[in-house]
Amino acid sequence: MANVPGLPQDIWWLVMRELSNRHDPDFVALYHCALVSKALAGLALPQLYSIHDTSPAMTSDTVVYDASMAVVLWRSIICSSLGETVFPYCLWVKALSLGNLHELLEVIAKKSMRKYTALLFSPPLESFRVENKARITRNSKGQSMDIQKVVVHVADSITRFIKASAIEENRALTSLRVRDGSVLNSDVGRAIRESCPSFKEVGCFYCQGTEVDQDLAGFLGNLAPNTLESFTISSINEIGQEAFKALSAHSSSLKYLVLQSLQRPALTSLNILCHCRALEKFTLEASTIAEEFEWQSTVKQVFEHVVPWLSACADLRTLEMTKVPNATALLGEVLKSPDVRLTMLSVKLLESDETFFSSLGHQTQLRHLLIDAKYLLDVSDPRHTKLVDSICSCPELRELTLQNGPLERVDLQRICQRAPLLEDLTFEGEVTDEVLPVLAQLSHLKVLTVNGLSLFSFVGLHSFIQQLAMDEKASHANISISVADQTGAKLSEDEEALVQMEVARLFNGRFEVTDRQDPDELHQSDFSD
What we know:
Elements: H1 9-21, H2 27-36, H3 38-50, H4 60-63, H5 67-81, H6 89-92, H7 98-108, H8 114-120, H9 147-168, E1 175-180, H10 186-195, E2 201-206, H11 212-222, E3 230-233, H12 241-247, E4 256-262, H13 264-267, E5 281-286, H14 295-298, H15 300-311, E6 318-322, H16 327-334, E7 344-349, H17 354-359, E8 368-373, H18 382-391, E9 399-406, H19 409-418, E10 424-428, E11 431-432, H20 436-439, E12 447-450, E13 454-455, H21 458-470, E14 480-486, H22 493-507, E15 510-515, H23 519-525
Parallel strand pairs: 1-2, 2-3, 3-4, 4-5, 5-6, 6-7, 7-8, 8-9, 9-10, 10-12, 11-13, 12-14, 14-15
């Protein structure tokens, strides 16, 4: 046997992969392979620990009967997080079930299982054992060990090791995205600064906790100054003054800033970011709780600092504001700035300040405009006229979406003439066949969505499709036409099918119509089989 040449490492790696990827993984074979040599252990153990959560030692059916297996496995994982093992086992774990650890601790806390408790917390894991300070009585169900605190201690140790190791071993790391932003702290920031010279982007889904503002500030503050280019928080968070101060240390480099679901403390601290003037994209969203916060009057000084800040962002191209209180008053001033040249503006408004609709016309380079107003603007409202006038001042528009902003035929005619490059148009309003020839003038139309009450006939729709096809210079490939609230002129199934076939044949596109159901039909449907 000594003269038989060994198999290449690549072949052994494939063998280990096969053993672990089976429907019924061969844990015994992987374990014995790990005992052959250190080289083979380096191939077998990563596979073994990557599927450890499905092993007999980690299933609730067997943990009661063979606690020793579970104790040894958990002990190896925890010890590796302290750097006390030959291999970094916890780095190979894909699914860490702390619930299983909780179950194990409940089992070995029993008097008859105390030897396993001693084994689990023998050196170097003595510090992981946390005693329950509550008084234990004969009839109580309490345990001498505070199981929940033990589990938390283990989780902290493992996550700290994984974060530090992952960062230190990946010098090419440029971007970090986490679900829970509370894991970002000074230690992580220092590790990135020391090991990842090209790091420039961080994002998290949510960021909650009593210390999260300080912890996040510690993370941002320990990065090299003016290196962060992108910072994103996508959901509920409790950041504020401290995090914003730390972000300001990247004022010259920060280009993309997304702050969603901000609470009141964050809104009252926005002025701290006033030195971040290199922004190219800024997204601001208020939390549901903060929607009623009148920050323009409550913290007037903060509001008045935000206006000149955004007005001075000469590189800002994308601006998004969602349910930000007093947004129209803010934008009414910002959009007038000659230094601001937006190509994309998306707003979901809580109010409709008149200055916003007139100032919008200053952004003549807009290519994408999306406005969702909380309150319907009647066509007789002066703000409606100013809105249409402003849209007509944006000849580069490719996308226009208006929610709660009804358009009449005369409005559409003006817009189609002044913004002929429109590709995506969504609007509301009570419209009939007479608007279809107007819309057919848009030679680049790719998406048309009519959300208002419509009264389109089969003849009108068929003629519209033919008009689109007749323009040889037009580009309507893969067009999507959606009529969302057809009323009073319901197409027959055959008519609807004919329009769909024509759109598919001529443009490889699609057509769909949703009929407003008559109240009597709804009542009758309640009694149908």
